[in-house]
Amino acid sequence: MKRSTLVLTIIMLLSLVMTATASAANSPNLSTWEEVFNPTPFPFPGWWAADDTALKFKGQLYFKFFGDYIYDQAWVTPDGENWSLAWEGPTIDPEFEYFWPMIIFENQLYLVLRDGDGMYPDRIVRTPDGVSWETVFSAEGNENLWVWFGRFMSFNDHLFIFAGNWDGTNYSEHLWRSPSGDPGTWEDVDQFSCTMRAYATFKDALYMGGEWCEGGVQIWRSYDGAIFEPVTTNGFEIPSNLTVEDIGEKGGYLYASLTNEEGGQIWRTRNGMDWQPVTTDGLGDPNNFSFTLINYKENIYAFSESYMGVQVYRSQDGIIWEAANEPGWGDPENIFVAESAMLVYKGALYVSPDGPAGILRFIEP
Question: SS3 of 129, please?
Answer without folding.
Answer: coil
